[in-house]
Each structure stands twice: as C-alpha cells, then as structure tokens.
Design goal:
By secondary structure, this protein is mostly helical. The chain is built from 47 helices and 8 strands. An 8-stranded mixed β-sheet has the order 3-4-2-1-5-6-8-7, with helices on both faces. Helix 23 packs antiparallel against helix 24, helix 28 packs antiparallel against helix 29 and helix 43 packs antiparallel against helix 44. It is elongated and about 145 Å long.
Length: 946
Amino acid sequence: MKEIIQKITHLLGNDEKLVFLAGAGCSVEAPSYLPDGHEMIQYIVKFLCDDFEIQKILSIPELTLETLLKIICTHFDPILKIYNLYGIDTKPNYLHFFLADMIKNGQYVMTTNFDCLIEESLLQSNVSKKKIVPIITEKDYKQDENFDKALKKGKLFLFKLHGSIKNIITGENTTKPLINTIQKIGENEKRISLFQLEPYKQPLLNNILSGSSLIIIGYSGKNDFDILPMLRDIDSLNNIFWINHILDENESDVYEIDKDSHYITIKFDRIDKILLEIKNYHQNMKIYRINVNTCKFFKNFLTLEQGITQNGFSTDIENWMRFNLDSPNYVMKKVIPFKIFINYNMLDEALRCGEELLDVAMESIKDPQKIDIFFDIGSIWEKRGVFEKALEYYSEGVQLIKNVNNLSKRVLFLSKMGAIQEKLNKYPEAVKIYEKELEIHKELKNLRKIVDLLFKLGTLYKKQQIFEKSIERFEEALLIETKLGNIRKRIEILNEIGELYLSRKEFSEALEKFNKILNYSTKLDDYAIKTLALENIGKIYLNQKKYDKALEKYEEILIILDRKNDNLLKISVLNNIGNLYLDQRNDIKALEKFKEAYNLSTSLNDLEKEILCISNIGKLYKKQNDLFEALNWYNQALNLSNDIDNLEKKCIYLYEIGEIYKTQKKLDESTFLFEKGFEYCKELNDLPGQIIFINEIIEIYENKEEYKNALEKYKEAIKIAENLGDLENKAVYLNNIAVIYFKSEDFTQALKFFELSYRIFNQINDLNSRTVSLNNLGTCYYKLENYTQALKLLDIGHQLNEQIGHLDEEVWFLDKIGNIHYDQKKYFKALENFRDALQVSELLNSLELKAVQLNNIGKAYYFLENFHESMNYFEHALELVEEMDNLEFKADLFNNIAGVYYAKYEYSNSLKYTIQSLEMLNNLGLEKSKKSGILKKKIEFLKSRI
C-alpha cells in the first residue's frame, strides 16, 4: 500500500501528466452533502411516482439517474428545473479544493457532475475568473486551442462531460446542452461510449488523455455505465488509478488488476468487472484499484484549507422539490412509472400501468398524452406477438391524432400498423396503410422517407404479383432517388424493376435497367455490382434461348471472380451455367458445372452454397426421371438444411421429396412430408408456403376419396386465405368444399358453400367465377327440385356468360335449363334449349358434348311421341359414342333405344337392346348398381310380353 501511496504522491508532486475524472461521490462528503445518483433516484421516484409503483421502480437494478431524468424531461419537466437543485448555495468540500489545486498545478480535471463546486473552490482559492475556462458546450469542445500552451499562459481548464446547469464563470445559461446530453445518455440502451453519443468531444479528450495517468474519484461503479465504454475507447493511457471510497478512515489497500490476480478470483464486484474489462482491451496498461477513505486521503495534499467551512448543506430535498417543482397529478404519477417500466422492458408492469391510466383517468388525460399511451401499449402487445391487440391500440391512436392534426405522429402509427400487416403477410392491408403514410410524407416533403416507402410498396405489390403497380412505385422512387444522389440505392431500385420485367419476359425493358446498373458499377468500381448486372443480363439471354450470349456473360463474370478470388460468387455463376446447359438439354455439361460448384462449396465449407448445388443436381436427375438419384440428392439437401436449422430450405426439400413420392404413388409418405412442411411454414408464419403445402395435402385426400380429411384441410386453408387477405383463394376453397358435398349428394350443404363462394366472387367482381358459381347454384337448386330458383339463377348466369363468350359454359347452361324444362314436362321448350346446346357443341367440335345433346333431343322427342325423330337422334348419338369408347354412355343409349322399340310395341328389339345395355354395365363392374337392378326387372317384364 505504501508503495502505491508513494507512487501517487510522487505523481502529484512531479511533472507527470495527470487527468482526474470526478464522479458524483465527490460532492457527497461534508460540507457539500449533495445526494449521489442513487439518492437522487430515490428522491425523484418518491416525489413523482404513485405510491403503489415506488418499490417496483426502486428495485430495478439497472435504473440510472440519466435515464430517469430523460423520462422526466420528456413527460414532466421539459426544462428540467430539477437541475436547479445543483445550483443551490452549497459548499465545496476537501475533494473539490484538492481538484482545484490540481487544476492550478496545470493538471486536467474532468467531471460528470452537474454542480459547480469545483469552479466555486477555484474562486474561493482566489483564482481570477479570467483564468478559469469551463469546457461545457459543443462550441467549447470544438474550440481550436492548444491546451498545453494555454496552460503555460495561465489558463485553467475544467471539462464537464455531462454538462452543467450554468457556466458560473461566464454567466452563460448551459441548460439546453445539458438537457441534450442527458437525453442522449438516457436513450443509450446499448451503453455505448460517450464519444459515440457526442463525437465532437472525442478529439479534445483523446488529446488530453494521451500519455497521461488517469485518477478516478467518486465513482461507485453501480450506475456509471458510460465510464466503461469511454475508457475502453482510449488506448493511450499510461496508468489508471480507481480510488474506491471506504468509510473506515484507518483502513486502506491497493490491488493491481490482472486477469490472473488472486484478488480478482476471491472478491469480484462491479468495479473489478469494469477494470478487468478495460485490462482485457489494454493489456499493457497498468490498472490499480485503491480502497481508501477518499476525503482523508486527498486532504493530505491540500495547500489551502481556509475556504472550507464546516457548515454543511442543509436543504431538505423533499421540501425543495415540493416548493420548486410542479406538483404531479394522478395521471403524471402513473405516466412516469409507465415510461420507466417500458424503458426497462418490464412489459407486464407497463401494460398494467398503461391500461390503468386509460381505464381510470381517460377523461383527464390530454389528447397528446393519450396518443403516446396508445402507442406504447400497442408496442407492448406487438413485442409480445399479439398483433390484433397491437393494431387495436394503434388504430385508437390514429383516431385521436385527427383531433391534434399531428402528421409526424400519424406516420409513426401508420408505419407500425403497416409493418404488422406485412409481418402477418396481409399485403393488401399493409399496402393501404403505407399508401396513406406515403401521402403524409409527400405533404411533409420528406424525400428520403418517400423513397423508402415507395420501395416498400413496390416490393409488396411485387409479392402480390400486381406488377404494373409495383413497377410504377419503383419508377417513382427511382425518379426521386436520382435527385437525392444515392447511387447504390438507385442500383437497388433498378435491379428490382429489371427483375420484374424479366419475370414478365419483357426482355428489352429488363435489359435497359441491368445495363444502367452495369454503367454505375464502372463508376463505383464495384465488381460485386458488376457481376450482379452481368448475371441478370445472362438470365435475360437464357430466357430468350440465346445461349451463346448468356454463356458469354457468365464466362465474363468467372474471369472477374477468378481475378478477385471470390469463390463464393463463383459457385452461384457455375450453377447458372449449369442451368443454362440444363435448359439446352445438355445434361452432361450441366452435371459437370453443378458438380464443380458442389466441390467448390464443400472446399469452402459453405453449407448454404452446398445445399444450392445439391438441389440443382437433384433437379437434373428429377428432370431425367431418375427418381432414385433425385431422392438421394434432395435427401442430402434436406439433411444439411436440418444441420443449419434453416426452416425455409427444409420446406423446399420436403416439398420436392413429397412430389417425388406422390409421382411414385407413395401417398402416405408424401402426405407425411407435406404435413411436416406445412408445420414448418406455420413456424415461419409463411402463409403462401402454407397454402402450397395444404393444396398438395387436399389433392391427395381427394384422390383417395377421403373427403372428410379433405374438408378439414379446406377449413384450415380458408383461415390461411383470410389471414392473407386472399379473397379469391378463399372463394375457390369454399367452392371446392361445395363440390365435395355435391358429389356426396348432400345438396343442401353444397348449396350453402356455393352461395358463400358466389358472394366473394361477386365482391371481387370476378365475372368468370361468378358465372361458374351461378351454374353450380342453379344445378344445386335443380337437384333439390326447386326449379323456379334454379331457372332464375341459370338464366342470370347464362346472360353473364354471353358477355364473356365461353362456349363450353354456354353448352352447360343450355343443357341444365333444357333438363329443368324436360323435368317440368315442357318438352318443346326443352327441345329448343337442347338444339341450341347442340349448335354450340358443334362449334366446339366436342364429340362428348354433341353426343349428350343428341341424346337429350332424342329423349325430348320420345316424350313428344315422335318416335321416328327420337330413334334418329339416339342412333346418331350412338355413332359418336362408338368413337369415344364410352361403355356407360353407350349402355344408357341402348336402354333409350330399347325404350323407343317398347313404345312402338316391338318387344323383341326392346329386349335385345336392354340385354346389351345390362351386359355393358356388367363389363364395367356395375352389376350391383341401381341401373343394373332396373334393367334386370325390365328384362323379366319384356320376356313376359313376348
């Protein structure tokens, strides 16, 4: 200990450069008695917070005075009158006079304290005001002065790192820069260096600290988070002495900080952690911790004691606050805790506090304050992932903003709401919100925000495949960005537009955009951008089947990448060349390039690239219908995707493997993989991916005629479509559910779902689907024998279809209308409809449609007792069916012809055709069907007549 005391005594007494860093503890000792940070937190919290919240807040271990003051400044005391407490007529203590002595001796003193007690001790030491230079404001820190020379001329400097309530030397009011600094420190969640918060301070402080010994006084290490990063940033110090205050005036000890120190392993507190971390950054720096009664220790070095009074600071701080600060009302006593809880991520407490405010004090809260509360509660629900509740609060906030007409606040809410809808993949809703936000930014003339929003909108329209709108938004962003001058952003936008044109096979427009990027890459001398442009140009030529030109571009890229030794990008280009050969059906060359890329990826141990290469090899074998090899490679890709736990890639390969199993009729294995992929997509909240997998699962269930399972999946699919805001897909699913019920002859349920789908098709004005739905609805009513409603809907559908001109739909409308008239025994009307349907069938040149209508006409003539015409049409239909080789239809026609012979009393011919009809059904395996039963009875009856 004596050795270190002697060393410090030696330092204080010779010409070595010293810098003192003084914290709040320096103003605690008698007679100053100013509260330290911890005490001030207690006074402020008790004064400003609701009694119920006080203990919860004081138990927050990370709570700092600066954070608390920032919250108070924002929500209660914008000019921070509370700082005036540090301007009360307090008295300097021994430490202040010691620091004043050090300044007079030509050393440097820095302090984070707001009080002016060091300046006061200089004045009481008979130092002229002209000599004292407090460095407080940004202007002070930026002054172009050689401090060492200034010291020799008699100038005395004090550096106030966090600012001061006032410059008592010049009389300048420095509250504003003090508030700015405290706001930044209070917002400093990442606990970064003071230099990073206020970079203008760094050059000057670096210069002062360079080559010096730093002596730290008055810091407990509890809340001094800004000290560690600041010291970590400085690598030019010789020594650090951390003077740690202890109460016992007779005890003292000293330890050198070293990572292998025995002391550190036995006793390890906050100060040790700080010092050890600094040591880890600066191995050659000597760092000491000195435990001593600070006041007694430094009192030994004082040259003047006359100015030190024994009359201490006697102000009752609680009373001072009561008389000098505005009295907080109930709302404020809840708002401050609410903001503190949010700041320290205590979401349960914050939510309770915020909702109490809205429930109990809604009428007494001013609109701007309500808006903030709605925003904060919305943010809490958003953090928890309860997006519907978050949107509810954000929406309330937006409504309130209309009362105060605060555009800046409104865009903040809209931005949050849009982001949630985007996260939920509800792209149409997100677009509506972002479009509103865009209009406000245009009104505010915020060009950078306008560009960012236009880019976001372009991306969202692209995801919805609304290409015209997407290009329009990107082009608008490009026009503004050209004025703003950020070339890299311009390139990003041009690339998006180029890729859109490429996806639409509008190659000349895409080529124009990618060539512009190529020109910019030359200006920037950026080979990565150049290779991107060349790669996209290669894709254009590949799509145009201009393989030589595409290969030329890819080879050009390879030359650049070999020169730059960029093997990662080379893997991508080799894969592109492989795909080029694959497109040319040159599978040997394609496999060669894919395997070259694969070998390169394994040598680099880049699993993501390796997966890409393996996938391409699997694709090649799948194309060759070598499903065994394809499965082998896709399974490798899936295993590697599991190794890197990449859910997106797992989904891709589960789908590919599932498709192969489906092709091999291994439907259970395929279903299992599709179900797994569907679950991963749920984890990813990938709604479009969920749709892809669930469609595959439904298709399998329908093929296996497992309609109950298919219906369950359709219900899930409908929910996903609703979350996507995809009304069209929802309507299709409802329609498909109806079809299943229709096949099961549950026409009431079928009708219900056909009606639901029709309403949506009507809502989205999908004329084609509306027409089909009307046909389906009419058919259901027909099956339910509600002929009036059936005819009404089919007539409406028929009229709509005439606008579209779909001939195949025209046939079925006429067919169904004719059959209803037929069932109603309106045979002439039915005959008219069937003849019209036959004319359309002839235009379509469809054997089946013509045969059906010829059969219908034959049946109508039969009931009109025109047996000659009836027989002609049945026989004509039979000729067509013979060409089609449709035995069941042929059996029906034979039965109809038998009926005509029976009506003409030619029982032998009737029996012959009836027997032939039955034989055809037996050949089809329908001997136990209802039709077969009827025919058997008919044969017995005819035999009895002959």
